[in-house]
Amino acid sequence: MDSALIPEGVKRCPTWKFLLALAIAGAVLLWGVVAMLMVWFKGLNQTNMNDYYGFALWIWADLAFIALGGGAFFTGLLRYIFGIKELKNIINYAVLIGFICYSSALLILAIDIGQPLRGWFIFWHANVHSMLTEVAFCLSCYFAVLCIEYLPLVLENRQLDKVPFFHNLSHNMHETMAVFAATGAFLSFFHQGSLGGVAGVLFGRPFAFRTGINIWPWTFFLFTWSAAAYGPCFTLFITWLTEKITGKKLVKDNVVELLAKIAGWMIITYVVAKIIDTVYWATVTAPSLGFKWTFFYSDNPLYGKWILLTEIVLCGIVPGLLLIFGPTRRNPAARVIALLLGVLGVSLNRWVMVLQVMAVPVMSFDKWVLYYPSWQEVATTLLPVAYGVILILISYRYLPIFPQEPELNPIAPYTPANGAEATAGGQAGDESETEAVGQAAPAGA
Amino acid sequence: MKQEQTQHRPKRYGMVIDLDKCTGCGSCMVACMAENNVSFKKDESDKLLSITWMRVYKITNGKPFPDTDICYIPRPCQHCAGQHEGHSPCVSVCPATATDYSRETGIVSQIYTRCFGCRYCMAACPYHARYFNWWDPVWPDGMEKYLNPDVSPRMRGVVEKCSFCFQRYQAAKNKAYLEGRRELEEDEYQTACTQACPAGAIVFGDLNNPDHLVHKMVDPDLKHGGRPRNPEVFRLLERLGTNPKVYYKSGRQWVRKAGDNYLPGEKPGADMHKSHS
pLDDT tens digit string along B159-174? Predict the structure, then answer.
């Protein structure tokens, strides 16, 4: 039915399967939209937030989505600025995942504010001293960059590509993509960092407060570093998941292993920095404010020392080492476990830096307050997940996301003749040594 | 008409609450709500959702009878000055400049029509002095007539907090101006909670003015963010460097110690000069 839209040289599932998947994700999306409308029309009383938990599930989701979407800027940096050519085979998917993560974060921010119609005040009445202002500006600008990076991929749809203007636009945008990649990396450094700064500058909250350099607390740099470390883990994990669902090999092992190795080193260096930061905070910063570090992990039913160990050891050192050592990195099971631990680790870090900060009492006569989200908060947090699934479903079906897919999944014998005009996954004019096959046979269903 | 422009010494309005006088009656809370049109709900049992610009905490020394002792701590917004005048925990983080620090009065204001409800200021405030309007304000029938016409009610979705009854400052300034005066007398500008306290536990005035009672009680060290020289006076969470303008007075050491956090074995005031001074 939709075969004319499907990239050449690849096979896709039957339309009914595609529509069924869309319907399932769409149902979750609809549930989220209902909750979103309830929040917008009835107000934030639809949540379980309160005056102790002004920041809760949504802010965590924002921080986690943006960290996980960090694969886009970091892979782009490696590909276009450091010139690691192999990564062109995964950069499209990194960009798509980044696009989903960032658009999701923006949507959640729009739901999370008490007066959504005044959201533009953050730009109009900007307080340049606020980390959140920096987040808003850099995040919006970087989302625009992601749109620019995603657009050429959309224009490579088989039908759109037939329009000469779109074809040329797409080609020319690829030529200048290094400029956008550099801009994206620059912007990402600041918004990932300022998201870390959001917690780190809270000198009234000893659990979050960090010293640093000039106006930037150490969390500024840790958040940027961790997004660069764990973002690619998420890209690789979703790639693995996509391969399992489609039943196809989509990216060659050497590409996956290369990015996994880089992520491994980034994780280990990040964890070293994180340990130094934690030790300094625990032995110098917190005591100077009258707190023994163990106070932050005691006298409550949830936040124990286990959370620190899990974040640093189980979800930091372990995945870092698994990805650095060749045998474990090359072992698909060990690799995917490491990637999953990495994803969980950065999400846990963001949870701690939002939710635990709110939970800890600061005044000596105050008390720990715990929180659980309302169904409206859960639904609106799953909304972007469902939206992401839908966007991946559509993009995978109709766009040449994976340049190596035709070669890895030939549907007709490969010949140089039919491979010449390959669907190179958006790398028109690229110096590919693994140009994909294409036009070998009518597209799949 | 030519107005002579003269430099006026900036004010630092502040408060001293004598905890040894406070009986925990809650008059300050009631007066505050009435004066400032603070909204309330039918069910106020969940205190994490109640708006109480002035909130009275009850603390105990944790000792068994007969050594048990209790203390009530009224907690308005502390109007922090921060490490440098204006770097309050909340003011510095507000992305839309919806909360501001006045160098003229030292009062931390909240601009309700500019606040878009991100609640970052609430996350920043260690005193939980900031409250979010989770619901639209609804008063019982007829009660609208009793609202204070000088204070705008707040809409759903914005943050609010104690303003040191700023409308009273404006009214006093207007009156003084009409009378050809620039300076206010001490009793011309007093907060509702100060006037309502039956025990006279709350004293309000200009910390910069040596003639005002607050100054005399606190004897603020202005070179160190207004830290009190009076050994019986303390501020909540002094060590964080928030430099509040609400002071507390007590002759009981355990009460003074409850005002801040200390490491095991550490004595109150031990680390004052090392951190954030």
Answer: 999 999 999 999 999 9
Residue B170, helix vs strand vs coil: helix
DSSP B188: G
Whether B97 sits inside 8 A of A125 (CB atoms) is yes
Domain assignment present for A412: no
Q: Best residue in B59, B118, B134, B138 to probe A by mutation, most A CBs within 10 Å?
A: B118
**Is B273 at the interface with chain A, CB within 8 A?**
no
Report ipTM (2 d.p.). 0.92
Note the pLDDT of residue B85: 87
Check B124 against A204: CB less than 8 A apart.
Answer: yes
Report if residue B97 sits inside a domain: yes
Model pLDDT, residue B61:
95
Task: State the pairing for strand pair B220-221/B70-75.
Answer: unpaired
Enclosing domain of residue A290: 15-385
Res. A428: pLDDT tops 50: no
Q: The domain spanning residue B132 has which CATH number?
A: 3.30.70.20
Q: Is A414 a member of any domain?
A: no
Cα distances (Å, whole numbers) of residue A241 to A180, A250, B225, B272: 28, 11, 57, 55
Asked if A364 lies within 8 A of B127 by C-beta distance, the reply is no
A366 in B contact zone (CB under 8 Å): yes
Range of the domain at B66: 13-258
Share of chain A above pLDDT 90, in %: 85
Average pLDDT of the segment spanning A411-433 = 46
Partners of residue A125 in chain B, C-beta under 8 Å: 96-98, 114
Please report, as a single letter, which amino acid is at residue A418.
Answer: N
pLDDT tens sequence across B80-132:
999 988 999 999 999 999 999 999 999 999 999 999 999 999 999 999 999 99
Residue A107 pLDDT exceeds 60: yes
What's residue B94's pLDDT? Answer: 97
- Using only C-alpha atoms, what is the Rg of chain A? 23
